Structures are given as C-alpha cells and as structure tokens.
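Async update (no meeting this week)

Hi team, since we skipped the sync, here's where things stand on the single-chain job. The sequence we agreed to prioritize is pasted below, unchanged from the tracker. I ran it this morning and attached the output directly underneath so nobody has to dig for it. Comments welcome in thread, and please keep replies under the output.
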Amino acid sequence: MKFKDMSEHGKTYVIAEAGANHNGDMELAKRLIDSAVACGADCVKFQSWTKDSIFSKKVYQDNFFLRDDYRNRTDYTLEQIVDKYHIDKKKHIELKNYCEEKGIEFASTPFSRDEVDLLIELDVPFIKVASMDLNNIPFLEYIATKGKPVILSTGLCPLSDVALAVETLQSNHCTDIILLHCVSIYPPRNDEVNLNNIDMLRTCFDVRVGYSDHTIGTVAPVMSLAKGVCVIEKHFTLDKAMEGWDHKISASPEELSVICEAAKIGHLMLGSRVKTVNEDRERREAFQRSIVAARQIEKGMVISEDAIDYKRPGTGIAPKYYKSVVGRTAKRDIAYDEIISWEDF
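Output:
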C-alpha cells in the first residue's frame, strides 16, 4: 500500500525502519529491503546524515557512543563509525531505485537541510522527523516549505514542544501531519511504553497518530493497532547479534512479519463504534433461551415464578419478559419442559 492511499484503505501503514542497520554495507541494505518486502512492510526507511550533519566536533572529541555496549571502544572512534554508516547521495539513489524495483516505498529521516533537499529530489512519500529535531524550529520551518507530508516522532520532547512543532508546521502551510507516539529508550520497560499517549496526542492535536516502537518483540506494536494507529514504525534487522547500533532492539524478520500481518487485518477487527449483531436469527435462536415450564402446568393455573425455567432454544418468549408471564392464567395444559408461547394465556 502506498502512503498516499493509507486513509482510503484504512490499513495501518508499516514502516520497516532499517535506520543504520545496513552498517554502511549496500548489499546488506538491499537484503534488508528484500526482507521488508517478504515480511509485507509498506515502506523501508533509512536515515540520511553525514558525520558533519549529526554531531558537533565536541561529541567526536569526547568519543561518546550513545549505546552503553559501544562505549570505551578501542578498535575505532565514533567519528569513524558514523562516517562508515552514512549513505551518500549515490547510495540514496541506488537504494531508492532498488525499492522501486521491489515494489516497496523508500523513505528516510534527514538531519540537515541538504538531506531534506536530497529526499525531495528523490520524491519520497513523506519526510520523517526524529524526535531530537522536534524543537529544531528553523529545520521544521524549512521542511514545511517542501510540500510533503511530515511524520514527527515525539519521544524526547514534552507536550509543549510537540505543540510548538505542530504549530510551526501548520503556520508554514504544512497541514498533513502525523504524530508518532514514541519512547526514545532502547528498549523501554513495559511500564514506560504508555500506549494511552496515542489517544492523548489525537485528542490534543486533532491529527493522525501512529506509533514508533523501540520495545523488544511484537506485543506493543500489535497492541497499538487497538488504538487505531495509522502508522507503525519498527526497527528491523536480519540478525540481532550483528554488530551495530540498533540490531539488539530491532525486530527479526519473523517478528516484522507478525506486525505486518496484524496491520493488514487489525483495522477490520476494530470495526465501528456502533453496536451491531452479526449473528443471523437462526444462530441467535439456537444459543439464546426461552421460557419453559419447570413442571406440569394445568389449564386454569396461575403461573408462578417457580413454575417456569429458561432453556434453549430461543424460539419462544425471551427470559427478559418473565414478569409479563408470571401471574397469567394458562389456557391449556402445558407439559414439563415445553416452550411457553403468548398464545398459552
């Protein structure tokens, strides 16, 4: 399903977040695309940055890795690994073309204006903004001028920053906005996931809302479908043991398949807010009960409550009318266990 058709079809749009899990290897990136297609994802999303657009010199001087298990490395520096994992313009074009060949949409998260321009040149279906840039107002103002839908992750920011980001986009003529509830901990504890924030964001901002997941496994993204999310974004990998930043918290192909399958049918299961009875009359009558004689009832007898019982099938008088039966006089003999009808009084 294409991003632009999401609202029409009602199906939740699944973004397979490759991120930097390609480890700078184009063949691995293409295998990730192949896997996302096989799993049933709608989009593969990468990240567009260079060593100059994501970190300042101080971060490289400190050599501070964001993941605990990548700190204190001696075999390479942060600057070296950031440079290795980035994808240049030529690789962007190659990956976009490969996605088109495989029938899946290509998208990415930019970290600078130049990268926004590159993604616009590639005609991505939307611009994804990481939660680290939710308060980067000049950046949001620039993105808003590009005429693309914008998906905003909200993980790192308080509600006031979310409000400012939405207002910034809207005041710069970008009205096609999707907010993603997100917890930017890798992974969060169960009590930190807080899926009820999906309802809160929808109520506060009157925009479409999705979910960007950093939990281990499939429970949280599948549960988010019950909140009516329009987008699920999930990191994925071919091997959780592979060296790299996000492999450990990423979905395996098997897990991504579960999420994609749930997304295909989840909106159908949500249905409407109108109470409907889908079972036909024959099935309802077979399972429901009727008022029956609890003992032999003689003609002329006044029906008492202890003279009636309630048994299947539901082809006679429904139990909810028992007070209208009690106190009536039988017009005929009614045998034990016989279904009582209104004509019997």
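Quick observations from my side:
The longest strand covers residues 13-19.
The chain has 15 helices and ten strands.
Reply here if anything looks off.
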